[in-house]
Amino acid sequence: MPLNYAKTAMLLALLTGIFLVLGALVGGKTGLIFAFFIALAMNAFSLWKSDSVVLHMFNAQEVTDATAPELVRIVRDLARRADLPMPRVYIMHNPQPNAFATGRSPSHAAVCASTGLLETLDPRELSGVIAHELSHIKNRDTLTMAVAATIGGAVSMFAQYMQFGMIFGGGRDNDRGGLGIIGTLAAIIIAPMAAGLVQMAISRSREYQADRMGATICGNPLWLASALRKIDGLARRIPNEEAEAVPAAAHMFIINPLNGHGVDNLFSTHPNVENRIAALEAQAHEMGISSSTGSESTAAGSRGTSGEVWIGGQNYTKPPSPWG
Fold it and tell me: Looking at residue 131, what is its pLDDT?
């Protein structure tokens, strides 16, 4: 764990450094100082308000026992199993099945699921996804991801500003110590790419760990494996307009919301889904769990006969407890 914290600190320092370089390219020494204070303010703001900012980005609405009883019950039971405080629970009205967690600490955390996710998964698969997100909270990944999203987004916006400035005559004036049009061109090309690579490294280094811990929390790695297979297939076909508008936050989701490319390489925000599923199946084998023991999940498992409203006003029946 100390190694993970050191790596995270290094990555965040690199993002801040990229932002400072952009400031120097635009305004020389003055721009560097200005960018330094902006970076400090962004880090402080992300530290205290990252959850609110991210939830607002995706128009998420908080739900309670009264409005989404089964979802809240699943989150509460899994949080208890993970020895975590009960996080706030949100739903984003989006047809793409996906989920994320955010917050500066376990006591100030939130879990958000899309309506597409709730309509696609059965309770056991949903439990696997929620357990994965709770793992990010327990490992304090959520703060790192939110800060990376904030600074990475700022770097991209700054580069766009420089691009427009160059188009309309900016970047040619070196009176303030900037590097002129050559430096501006270099910043436009390199800075967003570097910020993106840093964000990818943060995400990719933690998804496997969250998968493994989440599988342990929910009690069955195959539930999460089944959920990932379903989500990945649909995410390739269903666009997420809110995520497309804020690509710097893509790494926060359990599955890449921007595209369905499952290439496990340097330019993917998430590890290859098949690799994640294989790791979960290997973990299930270690735990002595197989699909033949009744661990498979089916869509029919989310419906019963009680007629109880489950989520968002839809007439879902109360599913059997995943642990009872």
Answer: 97
What residue type is 115 in one-letter code? Answer: T
Q: Is 133 annotated in the active site?
A: yes
SS3 string of 251-320?
A: HHECCCCCCCCCCCCCCCCCCCHHHHHHHHHHHHHHCCCCHHHCCCCCHHHHCCCCCCCCCCCCCCCCCC
Tell me whether residue 150 is in a domain.
yes
311 lies in some domain: no
Tokens of 24: 């120097």
Instruction: Let me know the angle formed at the C-alpha of 48 by 43 and 50, rounded to the nearest 5 degrees.
Output: 75
Domain count along the chain: 1
Token digits of residue 176: 């303030």
Catalytic residue among 70, 133, 207, 242: 133
Q: Are 102 and 51 in contact, with CB atoms under 8 Å apart?
A: yes
Task: With both helix axes pointing from N to C terminus, report the angle between 273-286 and 221-235 in degrees, rounded to the nearest 10.
Answer: 170
Note the pTM of the prediction, 2 decimals: 0.74
- Is residue 321 a part of any domain in this protein? no
Domain that holds residue 182: 2-302
Instruction: State which amino acid sits at residue 131.
Output: A
Which parts of the chain register pLDDT below 70? 1-8, 11, 26, 43, 46-47, 50, 146-154, 156-184, 186-188, 190-205, 259-269, 292-324
Assigned domain for 274 exists: yes
CA 302/CA 246 separation, integer angstroms: 32
Query: 231-288: per-residue pLDDT in tens?
Result: 998 988 898 988 887 777 788 899 989 864 444 444 556 888 999 999 999 999 999 9
CB 161 within 8 A of CB 129: no
